[in-house]
Design brief:
Layout lengths: L2 H14 L2 H8 L3 H15 L4 E3 L4 E3 L1 H29 L3 E7 L4 H14 L3 E7 L13 E5 L7 E15 L1 H7 L13 E4 L6 E6 L2 E6 L5 E2 L2 H9 L4 E5 H9 L4 E3 L7 E9 L6 H14 L11
Parallel strand pairs: 3-4, 3-5, 7-10, 7-11
Antiparallel strand pairs: 1-2, 5-13, 6-11, 6-12, 6-13, 8-9
């Protein structure tokens, strides 16, 4: 039987001075009350009550155990209250992982989150590899692209359109392509491991696969963006990487009617029966940030 429950029943019997009175108070049958006390005595290996036909009293051991069990039950109740607070009040260390290139995008949101929840300590790990959240003790990961099937819970944050763009100066010097096939004669900066020397577009005749080349291939989106802003060629990137620069006029999107690709961003976290308040509030704080540009933009107008 549940020993904590048995201790509660035992304490009520000691307080009431009878099994029947305790049963009424606890809304249990007298037999159930007796079973709880008997189970506790069997576990302890000592009697808790002196039983006579007229009177029920604690044994010497029962008196000592009653005092100790009251303190234990107080501790259990305090732990229960702490657990309840843990589920409702964000506090403690929150470990978050995200791609390296997200640093400049997340900083305003993280600052806002810390201002709202001062009892949370953020530990942000920016890495481009996909870590095992459970093995590495991470609470939340922000991930871009396809999510493989797993035991993780995923919440979609944004669907971001792709843009191909270059600086106004680059376009003035080299001209603007009118069809994706024209890109074969332009300088194109590529994200390593993703495009494999080819960019894909949609057209009236179906998918167009264009071989591209250029002076830089990298697995770091910020490095590619800086090279693009320096006038080294075209970049193909989702809106959250280039949206601010497009809005500021630093980059000009081209071939927009051929662009159909999108990038999906999710927040993922380990599955649990009781999601902690810090994780829940962090994700709730992410959602409105990802509903605004540069995460969501019109790629075709």
């Amino acid at each position: 039987m549940d020993r904590i429950t048995s201790m509660v029943v035992f304490g009520e019997v000691a307080k009431a001075g009878s099994f029947s009175a305790a049963a009424r108070q606890l809304r249990l049958s007298q037999a159930a009350v007796s079973k709880h006390v008997q189970a506790l005595e069997d576990w302890l290996g000592a009697p808790l009550f002196n039983r006579t036909t007229r009177r029920l009293s604690l044994t010497d051991f029962g008196t000592v155990f009653h005092q100790r069990s009251l303190r234990l039950l107080e501790d259990v109740e305090e732990a229960r209250q702490v657990a309840g607070e843990w589920r409702t009040v964000p506090k403690g260390r929150l470990r978050v992982t995200a791609p390296v290139s997200f640093a400049r995008h997340l900083e305003p949101m993280l600052t806002d989150f810390l201002a709202r929840y001062p009892e949370v300590d953020l530990d942000v790990d920016l890495v481009d590899r996909r870590i095992d959240l459970i093995e590495e003790g991470c609470d939340v990961a922000i991930r871009v692209g396809h999510l493989p099937d797993s035991s993780l819970v995923a919440r979609q944050l944004a669907i971001s359109p792709y843009f191909i763009c270059a600086t106004p100066a680059y376009l003035r010097e080299h001209g603007e392509p009118s069809h994706p096939r024209d890109l074969a004669s332009y300088s194109c900066l590529q994200f390593a491991h993703h495009t494999h020397g080819q960019w894909r577009f949609a057209s009236e005749e179906g998918e167009v696969v264009v071989p591209v080349s250029g002076p830089l291939i990298s697995n770091n989106a910020d490095l590619l963006l800086e090279a693009t802003l320096a006038g080294r060629g075209f970049i193909l990137a989702p809106s959250f990487h280039v949206g601010r620069e497009i809005a500021a006029g630093q980059l000009v999107p081209v071939l927009r009617r051929f662009m159909t690709a999108t990038s999906t961003t999710h927040a993922v976290y380990p599955q649990t029966r009781h999601l902690s308040a810090k994780v829940r509030c962090f994700i709730d704080c992410l959602v409105p940030w990802f509903r605004e540009p540069p995460w969501t933009m019109d790629a075709t107008s």
